[in-house]
Amino acid sequence: MTTYTHSPDLQFSDLALQHVPEAVVLINDRNDIVFYNDAAQRLWGLPRDEVMGQNVRCLVPVAYRADHDGFIARHREAGSHHNVGTTRDVEFVNASGEVRRGRLSLSQVVRPGLPGIFYMGIMTDVTQERHAESILQLRNDLLRSLTTEKLPLDQSGQFLCQRIENTVSDCCVVLLHPGGRDGRMDVTSTTTLPRRMRNALATCVPDAAAVAAMKDNPAVAADLAWTRHAVLARSFGFDSCVAAPITTHDGTPAGILAIYLRDSSVRDWAVDVMKAATPFCTLALGRDAARQRISELSERDTLTGLLNRSSLNRYIETMTSDRQDAVFTVMVINIDSFRDINNALGHIHADNFLREVAVRLQKLSAGRFIISRSSGDEFIVVVPNCPRALAMDQATRIIRMIAEPIEVDDSAITLSVSIGIACFPDDGPDGESLLGHADVALQQAKNEGRGTYKFADSSKNRLAQDRLLLGSALHETVSKGLLHLYYQPQIDTMTGELYGVEALARWHHPHLGNIFPSRFIAVAEETGQIAAIGRWSLQEACRQMAQWDREGIHVPTVAVNLSAAHFGDHSVPEYIAGLLRTYDLTPDRLTVEITENVMMESGKTTHDVLQAIRNIGVGLSMDDFGTGYSSLSRLTRLPLTEIKIDRSFINDFEHDTNAQAVTTAVIGIGNRLGMTVVTEGVETVQQRQLLEDLKCDVMQGYLFAKPLPADELEKWIRTREAGEA
Question: Which residue in 183, 459, 647, 656 is deepest, having the highest Cβ count within 10 Å?
């Protein structure tokens, strides 16, 4: 508490306070102003004779006036003085409509000879100090955002607008810059910009003269941002706008920064903020233009302006992945004998030839084709919606157009080109395969006389296509269900009961349809993908067995084919053991099938892996026995539990005595070695009867059932059980 004493009288002290640089206001116990110095007059802009004797609320910000007397009364009655002796910052609008910021401190005063408690407020004008701090903080934030975060223009522009809106009260900030369709402006702002206002600004197409005029007359920016849209802006509560052109380093207008205000009292402050922010807008637009230029240069061939090879690959990738029902053609075009042109005429004329070829291809395209210069004298044209029949016409047109003479130093030179053509999807599922096949076709065209075109040979490309398809499919097997297991029943010859099932991989491609195992398994082995198929088959077969157990469907055992690649991998036995534990299956429920080639090529590693699998208790079956050249001595050294006689011996089993003799011998060998003998390919009742007579253990074939999906096998089993019951 400050006791305001005077000696020798009050007039002397009041005179001393009258000329201090801070605004001083004194109120009595009725909240009336009894002292108001010169600095207070300058700060509030109200003369002394209009203030003296008035309630102090005339100096209080409008939002707090109604409650101010009650606030002071509560403090007087409660004796609370927590605001006395402290300072706080306040913001108010003076008589001239200017927003001022002051630092207020309050003191409780006793005036000798006068009753009641007086309050004295001392206000220091900190408007400029606060403005400077706000602008400094704004600059720091914008600089940090633009130099460290490296956001794209839409995000950095939104941040810039948001920070200005946080600095200037009750406003909406917009960054306008070229880049919209049909010469329209791009609009960057925060969500505070009303949608209709955004649409109106976005449809604005400033004429070139108006944009150029901004360089010498910044007021043109306000015309573009405000005058043309004032009626609409006022409907959203905006009463004015400050705007400035954003220019490049050489002064060329590159955009407009506009601050739409709902309170004109902050206009001067908004102008100051706009001046501080404009250089950062220039930086943001310049960086975005540089990024676009770099991106354009990275996507274009510098000589012809056509797409480069990497950009073309992205287009083709999009066409093959997003438009799977599309049919399009890829043409690889090469200028015949271009080296001779280069040597005879020099690089300058040769470059002119390449530019002319690019121009002619673009003219022929009329904007419909995707055109690229992929290297020296090679161009690539992608023709959308172009099946094979139309591709011939397009190739012929290209050859004829480029063959038209080109004038060089008063001489007419005629070019010829050779073209290799590949069609999607017939010649490949993706850009890599299509371009590879088109390259091969191009070489064929050159070898056969040049100046012509050749299509990719689908039969020669099938294996490469399969490799690519399979490589993609294996990665998508689980997520997209491109690979499935079918199950073919195996029947106990003596009892007729279900002995087990053989799991067979099946592949249905969404566009190529069903692909036979003979087609994709061989490719999988050649590309090293068979290991992935085998592990997936083991896991899926075990999972399905566990599901059948839960559903009360009894399948005694499942046989899964593995390739030679698995038996060179010491981790396979533990992988199998882990699956059995995971799905709670006993080892006798699983049989691993190997081909006779594994036995022929078996070394120590293969033998160790086979033995480790057998030690788990899992069965080992030799598939397709009799089709290779293995010796019986090797047969006895492997820990086999089962032999499968290849279907080739059963095809004409009823009439071929040699096949019957071999089958009889194999069954006898298997029985003597304690192995179960399974015969594949049983399709007739007569074949079944002969195998029963020969005491074959197990039969498998279309006579009993074809390979079935899991749900159809369940129905097959339930139907048999119902029939037996």
Answer: 647
- Cα separation, 510 vs 23, in Å, equals 83
User: Measured in whole angstroms, how far is the alpha carbon of residue 260 from the centre of its chain?
Assistant: 36
Q: What is the pLDDT of residues 134-157, one digit of tens each?
A: 788 877 877 777 766 666 777 888
pLDDT digits (tens, 9 = 90+) for 205-214: 777 777 777 7
Residues 673, 675, 679, 685: what is their CA dihedral angle, to the nearest 10 degrees? Answer: 90
- Three-state DSSP class for residue 163: helix
* 128 burial type by CB count under 10 A (0-12 exposed, 13-18 middle, 19+ buried): exposed
306 and 313 Cβ atoms separated by less than 8 Å: no
Structure tokens at 266: 């902050």
| Strand ranges inside 235-327, DSSP E | 240-247, 253-261
Q: Quote the pTM value.
A: 0.42
Instruction: List the domains of the chain with CATH numbers.
Output: 8-125 (3.30.450.20), 148-299 (3.30.450.40), 309-458 (3.30.70.270), 484-724 (3.20.20.450)
Task: Please name the residues in contact with 266: beta carbons below 8 A apart, sequence gap of 6 or more.
Answer: 99, 168, 169, 170, 171
Q: Which of 14-23, 193-202, 493-502, 697-706 has the least mean pLDDT?
A: 14-23
Measured torsion, CA atoms of residues 703, 708, 714, 717, in degrees rounded to the nearest 10:
10
Of residues 145 and 10, the one with the higher pLDDT is 145
Instruction: Note whether 225 and 241 are within 8 A (CB).
Output: yes
